[in-house]
Each structure stands twice: as C-alpha cells, then as structure tokens.
Amino acid sequence: MNLSPSLNNFLEKTGEQANFFTSFVRNIFKGGFEWNEFLRQCYVIGYKSLGIVAVTGFVLGFVFTLQSLPTLKEFGAQGYVPSMVCISVIREIGPVITGLICAGKIASSIGAELGSMNVTEQIDSMEISGANPVQYLVVTRILACTCMIPLLTLFADAMSLAGGYIGVNTSTNMSMQLYFIKSVQTLYFSDFFPAVIKTIFFGLAIGFVGCYKGYTSNKGTESVGLAANSAVVAASVWIIILDAIAVQLTSVFVYN
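Above: the chain sequence. Below: its structure as tokens.
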C-alpha cells in the first residue's frame, strides 16, 4: 500500500522515537550506571534552574493575586484570595508554567549539547572506544529531568505563595501566619498528589525530547540550532498534551 510522503515520514519518526525510548529503558537496567554523571546532571538541571524558576513562580503568584483581588473585593470575598491562589497554582498553573519554562531552558540545552557532540563525532568516538553513549548521555539526563522537574515545581509553588503574600499586602494588611493558614486550609492531598505525578511525566518528556533531538540530529553545523529549537517546541507541545490528559484522568478518578 502506497502512503503519502508526509504520513510515511510521520510513521518513520514515530518508529525512531519508540526505538530510542526502548533503548533508554533497556539501558537503565544495565550494569555500570553512571552515578557521577547522573548527579552532575541533577546539579545542572536542578540547581542551575532555581533562579529562573524562583522569579517565574514569584511573579506568577504576585500577578495572579493582584488580578484576582479587585474582582473578589466586589463580592466581599477578598479573604478567599489566598486559598484560591494556592489551589490554582498547585493544581494547574504552577506545574504547567514551570514545565514550559524548563522546556525552554533544559530541553534546548540538552538538544544543543548532544547535537554539538554528534556534529563533532564525540558520540561516534564513544561507541568506537567501547563506551555506552546511551547510558552515559541519555539515561542520566532523562532520569535527572524526571527527578528534578517535580522538585523545581514544588519550589515554584512555594515562591508563588510568597508572591501572593506580597500581592495581598499591597491593598490589605494580612499577617504572614494568617495568609498561609488561609492558603492551606482548603488544600487536600487530592490537590497535591496528581500535580506531583504529572510533573514526573513532564520531566520525562523534557529529558526524552531534548536527548532524542540532539542525539539523532544531522551532522551539519546548522543541525545544532535546529535540534535546540525543535526540542523546545516538541517538549512544550508534549507538556500541554500530557497536562490535558492528566486533567481528564484527575477529574474522573480523583474529584468524582
């Protein structure tokens, strides 16, 4: 059966990604796991992303609070602002915004790094020397993303609450203790747990896309920029898709 070129290309890319993911899973359980490289990637991905995540989370909570206060004041419900901001950020806004920020920073960095190694034939040299480039380069980065993105999201949530406290006190005089009591009094485990679970899949998607785009890039020098750019776009799309799936599953199995 003849397929259109676009459909044939789509099926080829899907098969390549499935094969790449299978290789990643298989190499997780091989002996000689690169713990030093894994810890180094956790430092690069996690610690070096704290600054942008902190600023993003703080501004998110601050702006969201300022936008919500005037509307709720009309109904005399400004006392509900802390709990509304807390639930909204932890359930949905915090994980998605943090995931998109990390997709832009981390996926592009991984794609460019592995793409440049591919162009300069460093990956080929590792294979010739008997090393396992998938285990050293791919497994460590994907697992580091999977571990660090949930932690970065929790940090962004905390900074959002801090930004919300500053936002509330621009027009009211609420103590910090009262603000955080109001924030968490309507928060349940069913709000927190699904958000953490989906950030694990966000991290997996960011790491996988960045590694796949860089590892399988072409040999030309322009492929480094293309790998970084396509990694950001693909990782962002995957985050939106995974979030839509997570929202549907959560509404069916948790909130009903």
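The mean pLDDT is 91.
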